[in-house]
Amino acid sequence: MLDLEQSRKYWKFESEQNKKAIRVLVNYKLKLRLTNALYRNELNMNPLLSNMEIFRQSQGTNFRVKPAEWQIIRLLLKQKYDFDFF
Fold it and tell me: pTM value?
């Protein structure tokens, strides 16, 4: 599809605009912001989450979350947002 009008301002080079390309429209159910995110201390206070990989090995950017850990995080998010989005 072609560029949407509102996204054209983000192109670095005008020559890239108005070209047909593979694109995806994204609709967010919920945007997590710093003001209402789950913070490290909240997760670390939970004994079932305090041993997560991110706390044991904090160098890096991606960390595995075990299925049981994810279920707890999911419940915390549901409580905080009153919305089950997963």
Answer: 0.59
